[in-house]
């Protein structure tokens, strides 16, 4: 009996949803398109907004203001979409600026490099380690070494030249 009693109320609710959708979908889609400039994204945002607002329809303070709730939801979804896209782009740009990790070297190659580094004068070795291992800027390395930036550049240049030999 309860299943039969629910059927008319469910049909009535489905009819209300259908009516709300037909009444507001076109205008909501235009609004979303004007916000995004992308038809597919506008459709997605409109559908998502309908799902969200209809899912909370019984909680709306004023069901007659459905149109405004729907618009506000579309606006919030669009903002979230563009914020997420901006964050993704910033992440990808940071990732692209990061140097590629050095290729895996053999233990023998690392040992040779270490021995060559130890043969350098202490200040050249310190400059190279600060610049490339500690990833300090020339100015930061100059501060640590208590010397001018030009001296750091010279130490690094000479040290690299000796390592290449």
Uncertain residue segments: none
Tally of DSSP β-strands:
0
Kindly report the average pLDDT value: 83
- Portion of residues in beta strands equals under 5%
Secondary-structure-derived class: mainly alpha
First-residue to last-residue Cα separation: 93 Å
Along the chain, the helix and strand elements come as HHHHHHH
Largest sheet: none
Care to describe what's here?
Helix 1 (2-36) packs across helix 3, helix 5 crosses helix 7 and helix 6 crosses helix 7. 81% of the residues lie in helices and 0% in strands. The mean pLDDT is 83. The chain is mainly alpha-helical and 165 residues long.
Q: What are the SSEs and their pairings?
A:
Blueprint: H1 2-36, H2 39-55, H3 66-97, H4 107-119, H5 122-133, H6 138-145, H7 149-164
Helix pairs in contact: 1-2, 1-3, 2-3, 5-6, 5-7, 6-7
Give a quick summary of the entry.
With 165 residues, the chain is mainly alpha-helical. Helix content is 81%, strand content 0%.
Q: Which terms summarize this structure?
A:
165 residues, mainly alpha, 7 helices
């Amino acid at each position: 009996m309860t299943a039969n009693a629910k059927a008319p109320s469910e049909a009535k609710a489905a009819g209300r949803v259908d009516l709300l959708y037909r009444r507001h979908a076109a205008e909501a889609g235009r609004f979303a398109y004007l916000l995004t400039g992308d038809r597919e994204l506008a459709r997605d945002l409109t559908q998502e907004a309908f799902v969200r607002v209809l899912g909370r329809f019984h909680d709306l303070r004023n069901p007659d203001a459905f149109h405004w709730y729907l618009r506000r939801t579309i606006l919030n979804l669009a903002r979230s979409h563009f914020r997420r896209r901006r964050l993704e782009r910033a992440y990808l740009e940071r990732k692209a600026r990061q140097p590629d990790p050095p290729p895996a070297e053999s233990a023998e190659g690392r040992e040779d490099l270490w021995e060559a580094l130890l043969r350098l004068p202490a200040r050249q070795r310190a400059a190279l380690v600060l610049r490339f291992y500690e990833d300090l800027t020339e100015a930061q390395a100059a501060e640590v070494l208590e010397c001018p930036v030009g001296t750091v550049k010279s130490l690094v240049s000479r040290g690299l030249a000796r390592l290449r030999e």
